[in-house]
Prior knowledge:
2 copies of one chain form a homodimer.
Chain A: E1 19-23, E2 30-35, E3 38-41, H1 42-48, H2 63-67, H3 70-85, H4 90-93, E4 97-99, E5 104-105, E6 114-117, H5 121-131, E7 148-151, E8 156-158, E9 163-164, E10 167-170, E11 179-182, E12 186-187, E13 190-196, H6 211-214, E14 215-222, E15 225-226, H7 227-233, H8 241-244, E16 247-249, E17 254-255, H9 256-259, E18 263-265, E19 283-285, E20 287-293, E21 296-299, H10 310-318, E22 329-331, H11 346-349, E23 357-359, E24 362-364, E25 372-380, E26 386-397
Parallel strand pairs in A: 6-22, 8-16, 9-26
Antiparallel strand pairs in A: 1-2, 1-5, 2-3, 3-4, 6-7, 10-11, 12-15, 13-14, 13-22, 14-16, 14-17, 18-19, 20-21, 20-25, 23-24, 25-26
Amino acid sequence: MTWIEIPANSPFGPENLPLGIFRVGDEEPRVGAAIGDQVIDLALVASAQMLDGAQVFAEPTLNAFLARGPRTWHATRGWLLQLVWNSNERDAVEPHLIPQSAVTMLMPFEVADYVDFYASERHATNLGRLFRPDSAPLLPNWKHLPVGYHGRAGTVVASGTDIVRPSGQRKAPADDAPTYGPSQRLDIEVELGFVVGSPSKLGKPVSVDDFRDHVYGVVVVNDWSARDLQAWEYVPLGPFLGKSFATSISPWVVSLEALEAAAVPLGKQEPPVLPYLAGDRLTNYDITFEVYLNGQLVSSPPYKEMYWSPAQMLAHLSVNGASVRTGDLFASGTVSGVRKDQRGSFIELSWGGREPLTVNGEERTFLQDGDEVTITAHATAADGTLIGLGSVTGRILPAI
Amino acid sequence: MTWIEIPANSPFGPENLPLGIFRVGDEEPRVGAAIGDQVIDLALVASAQMLDGAQVFAEPTLNAFLARGPRTWHATRGWLLQLVWNSNERDAVEPHLIPQSAVTMLMPFEVADYVDFYASERHATNLGRLFRPDSAPLLPNWKHLPVGYHGRAGTVVASGTDIVRPSGQRKAPADDAPTYGPSQRLDIEVELGFVVGSPSKLGKPVSVDDFRDHVYGVVVVNDWSARDLQAWEYVPLGPFLGKSFATSISPWVVSLEALEAAAVPLGKQEPPVLPYLAGDRLTNYDITFEVYLNGQLVSSPPYKEMYWSPAQMLAHLSVNGASVRTGDLFASGTVSGVRKDQRGSFIELSWGGREPLTVNGEERTFLQDGDEVTITAHATAADGTLIGLGSVTGRILPAI
C-alpha cells in the first residue's frame, strides 16, 4: 500500500498524512507530512518537483497553504497519497524523509481568532452541578444553540510548551473577600480543535452544508483552566483569566478528508434545532482521547457522543454575519463521556476535588507543579483503520 | 506655534499628531499624521529625510511602528513636533501635506486579540438592573477586579464600514422557545480602546507601572451590540454572537504621550483593591464623547468617571501570565455618566426600550435600518487645550 516502512499500529498510516511545521537543527521551519515515524519534507519535495504553489510548503506556518482553500487541499492530498503509494516516487521522496525523532515540531499555524464551545452534554451537566449546585445543571439555552465564547488567540501554544501556574484572584464562597495567589485548582480540558482555512465574507453566514469549504482539519487541544480564578470571575461576562494563560495544541493537523472515514451520524437532538442549525448530513467523528498524568492513563473521553456537530458550531458562530479567517481555531469544549473514566477534566474526574483519583499510587485532584499531562487521540474508521491525531503535552512549572 | 495653518477648534492641533493609515486614489496605503484638516504623508517625509527606520511608515498598518516600542514612539513624537513647529522644515514637509478630504482612512492596525472590559460603574449598574432585574445590579466581583472578556478580533472594522443587521436566536422570557430572525434590539456601546504596541512575555504579568511601556495610544470604539441575541446566549459563558458581528474603531490613534496632558487622578476605589491592582499614580483621562444618531446629538458620556484605570485593566488581563502582542486592543467597556444624557448605549438611554428618546422629531429606542451613528471624542488638557480623538461612524444595513 506504501513503499514507506510504517511501524505496526502507527497513528500516521498511509491514508492519514497530517501536516505540520517542523524544524531540523537551525534550518528554516517548513511544512512536513507525518507518515509512520518519519516526516516528509514537503518544501524540498514540492520544490524539486516544481509543483505549482510549492512555496506554501516553505512557509513557517500552514496559513498560506490553508488560505488556498478546498481545491488546493484536495489536490495536495491527492499528491501526497500518490507520493507514498506509488513506488515510482521512491527515488524522489526517500532523500527527504526525516525521522520524527530528529525534528522539533512547532506551532502548526498562526491562530487568528480562538473560539471555545461547550458541546458535550455530559461535561456541561457536570460543570453545572459543580459550579451552580443550587440550580438546574443544564441552562435553558444549552439545547437550542452551541454555547461558546472567545478565548485568547495569543496564548495558544505549541505542544511541549511549559505551562507556568497562573496567579490571580480567587474567592471561596465562605471567604469575605478575594485573595491573590497561585491557582490551587489548575486543570485541563480535553478538546478537539477545528482549523479554518478558507475565509468567509463579513455579513455572510456559513451554512452547515458549507463546513468543509472552510474547515481544513483538526488538532488535539488542551484548554488549561484555573477553576478557582474562573469561578470568581465568570459572572456575568464569562471565563477570562481562568482560561487565557495558555491553550496547548498538537503539532499535526489531520485533514477532514482523512477523518471522513471515521465520520458517524450525529446523535438525535431534542428539542429539534432551528433551521439554520439543521441538516440531513450532520456528522460527528469516532475519536477517542487518552489522557495521561505523569504517564498513567486517567481517562478516555469519546468524541462521538458530543451533542453538537462541528458544522453546527461554525454555522452558529457565523449566523450573525461574523466572518471567519484563515487560522481561526474553534474548539469543541471539553469532551466527557458517561463513564467516570471518560471525563475530560480533573474537576470532573475528582468531582470538584472531593473524590481524589489514584495516580501512580498517590491521591490526586488538581494539577501539581511538575505534573506532565499528555493527551493523545485517534479516530477509528468504519473498517477499523486507526487515524491518529498525535498528542499534545505540557508540564506545569511553579507560579512566578 | 506651528507654520501649518490649523482651523480654529480643530481636534488635531500641533501637539496631538495622531497616526493613521490613509490611501490616496489607488496608491499604496501608508502612515500619516493628522494636523488640522490635513494629513502629513510620513512615508514620503521620512524617506526623503532618510530617517532611521523610515520603512515602518510605508507599511499598510501601524503594527511595524507599534512593535518598535516606547523609545521609538517617543523619538517619533519628537520628530513630528519638530516637523510642525520648526518653520525650517516647511520646505521639506509642505509638499507632503494632503487635505483629509482627499484621502480614505483605513484600519489603523491589524488587531491581534480584542478584549472588552466593563469598567463604568454606572453602565454595569444600569445593565445589571436591565438584564437581571431580580438581583443586586452590581455583582460581588465587580469592585474587586476589572471584569472583561475576549471579543472577536477578526470583525473589528474601520470607521465607515456599513454594519449589516445581525440575525440569530433570541427568546423573550414569555416565549416558550427561541426564534431565529434579525436582531430587534440593535445597539451601540461607546468605548475607549487602548492599543498595545510592545509585546510582553508569556508567563510574565505587566504591572500597573509598566502600562506606558506596552500601550501606545487610544482609539474611539463603537462595540455594536444585539441585546436580544446577547440576553439569550450569555449565561454562563458570556456574550458571543450579540457582539461578534462588528466592532468599529476610529482611524486616528492618539498617543498616550499626547493624551498625558488630559490625565486626571483615578477616583477612589472602595473596597481597596488587591496589591497587583494598586498604584500611587493611577490615572484616568478627561475625555468626553459625543454620540450622534442621524446627525442629532443624543448623549455625551464622560470618560473621567470610569471606575477602573486602563493600567489596572492591563495588569489584570496579564496577571495570570497571559502575554500581550503588538496590535492587541482592549476597550474600556461602555462609558456611561450619571446623567441620562451621558449614557453610552441605547438600552440605557431608552431604559430597555421603555422610555423612548426623541430624535429628529421621532420617538426612538434601538437602531433602525438606515440609521447612522457617529461617535466623536476629545480630551481636554488641564490648560483647556482640546486633544481630539476624531470619530467613528457606521450605518445600519438591513439583515440579509
